[in-house]
Amino acid sequence: MALSLIRDKRFGAFFWTQFLGAFNDNLLKFAVTLAVTYNEALRGDWSAGLLVNLIAGLFILPFVIFSATSGQLADKYDKTKVMRLAKWLEPFIVLITGLGFVLNSVELLVTAVFLLGSQAAFFGPAKYAYLPDQLKPHELVMANAVVESATFMAILLGTIAAGGLMSADAGHTVVYVVCGFGLLVALAGVWSAHRMPLTPSHSAGLIVNWNVVSETWRNVRFATQLSAVWPSLLGISWLWFVGATYLTQFPLLTKTVFNASAGVATVLLFSFTVGLGIGAFWCERLSHKRIEMGLVLVGLVVMVFSGLLLHGVLINYPSVGSQQGVLLFFSQVRNIGILLLFVAISAGVGLYSVPLYSTMQALAPKEARSRVVSANNIVNSFFMVVSAGFAIAILMGTQGQVVWVFSAVTALNAVALGLWWFKQPYVVLRAALLFKVQRRHLPQLADVDHLGEPGGHLIVFPTLLHENHLHRMAGLPLEMTVVLSGRLKSSRFVAWMRKHRFILEFTKLSEVDAQKELIRQIAAHMQEERSIAIDKPMYELLRRQYRLDDMPAVLAKKGVSMGILEFQEELKNEHAISQPIWRLSKRMLQPAQGM
């Protein structure tokens, strides 16, 4: 599936464009970092420590400054054209980097790093908003798994390439080798970007607000109001907090705890990348190509359990007299175990991250999808900055014992698990449904853009819901209350679903009082921006006897948004009886008259 998706022009050209861009960003950024660290003549009166942290900060800063603007541009214009324009900036940034090396100018090199971050900030919102426009819903999970795995691999390969190419301290050879290679990669990225299909705008009439401060605030505030999306944005930001903390500490762990060569740190970095890819593709298999938020909890459980085992191993790690090389280090069973634990932790990160990205893309309003991604980038940047301060504080408080940084992250992952469990019962429900409903029998979804529209939804299913209510809940990746005609057999799980209003049971829906109560419940759900599901026969009854189609207009006068979404169930072909397609349509109603 992954290879066939990469061979598909809709995704393949995009894949190579973003992979080459991520590789080049880290190649050039790390090359500049190494240069200012080891070349005293280059940095002059500047402190190496100050420059290294300045470079890291200046690469992240543009995401805070420009994400709001870039999100607007990606929504207003063709996303593919926005990405092509951003890629055309890359060769010129490589040339500025080369000029900085030639002139021995630390100012030019630092400027080039800032421009690299700026180019990535303008590329990012269009990148993530492009996927749901070009791909079908059942392809989105695999696409995100491939993108996340490839991005971390590109980061690692770019970093390793910079280290290898910069190892020969040969003056201007750096310009010819590093920058020459970077220029070829940049031009390849431009070529790949021009192979991507166009992506027409959903908000051509959008007026761009060029005030970065007010638009940044408005962007984040808008994202907080999307109840189906905001938890995913916070979850993604936590992913970057964890990932940045782990990856940054590998060299220090290798040197101070293992007393091993730098090659060991590189192997650990590589293992983290491999584990993330394993987790991401495992997510695709467990979810059967569907958006499955329940895997967020599974990923966190894997991270916490593996982190606890890692703490037990590292806290008791014996001191080593002489430095260990790569072969010597990994010839010991204990160290192989440490490697596998890092693979397991990163596999948990992969399981955790893919559903969050897929949910953000699928449920963000399509006309504002790029701005939602830009809000995500802004919050991610904040969490990454906090991760650096967090690690510094732990190291200062423990006299440089890096083991406690990893242990503190595990403790915080346990807290994050608790927050998801108690604050997001819908995610707990999805995790339970993983074990209660067979994935292979769930339908494929089509035409589901309306799920991302703000407000509450009345969801109309074509058949009765009582016998198949768990199947319906698992089939649609949206928090909703399912109306049942009759009471379920009591159990702890049923009691929990009642408590959190995932089911609404009526013993006598044929009676007028029950029908009027159902009307009141539908209105209440809309006012709370919740979704509620009923079957087609009941919907038709409420339309005829209680003018249900007038409710959206009535609620609109009170500032409440209500959409009526209807599913049509159809078979893929005569041999696919077990996996139908649910095709979503939005009922377009006329405003109520005389009300």
UniProtKB/TrEMBL annotation:
It is found in: Cell membrane. SUPFAM superfamilies: MFS general substrate transporter. The keyword Protein transport does not apply. It is a multi-pass membrane protein. The keyword RNA-binding does not apply. InterPro entries: MFS, MFS_trans_sf. It comes from the Bacteria. The chain crosses the membrane at residues 12-38, 50-73, 85-103, 142-168, 174-193, 228-248, 260-283, 295-316, 336-357, 378-396, 402-422. Keywords: Cell membrane, Membrane, Transmembrane, Transmembrane helix, Transport. Pfam families: MFS_1 (PF07690). This is MFS transporter. It comes from Limnobacter humi.
